[in-house]
Amino acid sequence: MIIVNLDVMMARRKMSLNELSERVGITVANLSILKTGKAKAVRFSTLDTICRVLDCAPGDILEYRPDDE
To answer: How many whole angstroms separate alpha carbon 28 and alpha carbon 66?
Structure first.
C-alpha cells in the first residue's frame, strides 16, 4: 500500500493547499485528490515539481507499507 504524506510535508513547510496549488500549477481539487491518497497515479513531472516547491525528496511524500501491517 502506498501512503501519501503530502499533508505532513505541507505542514512542515507551513504551506497551505492553495499556496502549493499556485506554486506547482495544479488545481486545488487535483492536489486534494493526491493528498487524500485517492489518486490512481501521479506523473513524475508533477512529483518533481512538488518536491522542488516543498524542498523534499519523493520518499518524504510517498511511503510504502506492506498490506499485512
So the answer is: 29
Cα gap 6→35, rounded to integer Å: 5
| pLDDT one digit per residue (tens) for the chain, 69 residues | 899 999 999 999 999 999 999 999 999 999 999 999 999 999 999 999 999 999 999 999 999 999 865
- What domains sit in the chain, N to C, each tagged with a CATH number? 2-64 (1.10.260.40)
Given a contact cutoff of 8 angstroms between Cβ atoms, the answer to whether 61 and 9 are in contact is yes
Instruction: Quote the CA–CA distance of 63 and 45 in Å, as a whole number.
Output: 18
